[in-house]
Q: What sequence folds into this?
């Protein structure tokens, strides 16, 4: 069974630009969660989508948004990038809503904002 | 905000020794999970322990949960160099119909060959 895939793996953007990251969950998984990981703040929960609906949201500004498609693939978008958005963005999928069972993580997208 | 706090922040041991990592949390949880992350890569799920369980085993891993003390420990027995990684505990809380997974800042484990 293929694992969680994330594209692109690396991205360099400049301040003010916007970016879209993609996540393909394991086949049959309906929940996709997104996390931001930085050395200073650690792993911070961004949001979770389950069956195309946002189920939960972390404490991030409205510049961070996401969506999930009918095939469970998910995208997250960050508009008006700031230097502090440089981070490793991880997505995770699970069969049921996150928290009730294990999550399977993708390798992450490393975003650098210059 | 960090619900789970791991202790110690860093641990260095010799191959073959046991490694014990602790996690404390503040509010009631539905379950607690441990994950491993190799340098700059995705996390790998190790074990999930529910709030009504006290101990679970998986291979060389042993996890305990003490809900009265709001703490959990992860024991890796007979450590190997390949166990070198960061380890995170994640607590799961329920708010209505929603569940939320909150990660701690992690423990860096170095196993010297």
A:
């Amino acid at each position: 069974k293929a694992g969680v895939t994330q594209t692109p793996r690396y991205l360099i953007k400049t301040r003010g630009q916007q970016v879209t990251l993609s996540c393909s969950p394991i086949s049959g998984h309906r929940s996709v969660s997104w996390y931001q990981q930085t050395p200073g703040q650690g792993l911070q929960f961004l949001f979770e989508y389950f069956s195309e609906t946002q189920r939960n949201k972390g404490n991030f500004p409205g510049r961070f948004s996401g969506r999930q498609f009918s095939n469970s693939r998910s995208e997250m978008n960050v508009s008006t990038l700031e230097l502090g958005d440089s981070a490793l963005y991880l997505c995770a999928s699970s069969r049921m809503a996150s928290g009730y069972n294990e999550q399977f993580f993708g390798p992450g997208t490393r975003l650098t904002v210059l | 905000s960090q619900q789970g706090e791991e202790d110690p922040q860093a641990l260095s041991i010799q191959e073959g020794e046991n490694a014990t990592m602790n996690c404390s949390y503040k509010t009631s949880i539905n379950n607690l999970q441990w994950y491993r992350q190799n340098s700059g890569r995705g996390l790998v799920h190790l074990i999930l322990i529910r709030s009504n369980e006290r101990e679970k085993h998986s291979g060389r891993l042993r996890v305990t949960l003490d809900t009265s003390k709001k703490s959990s420990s992860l024991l890796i027995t007979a450590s190997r160099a390949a166990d070198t990684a960061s380890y995170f505990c994640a607590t799961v809380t329920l708010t209505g119909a929603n569940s939320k997974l909150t990660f701690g800042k992690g423990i860096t484990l170095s196993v010297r060959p």
User: Anything to note?
Assistant: Residues 3 and 26 of chain B are 6 Å apart (CA to CA). Chain B has a mean pLDDT of 92.
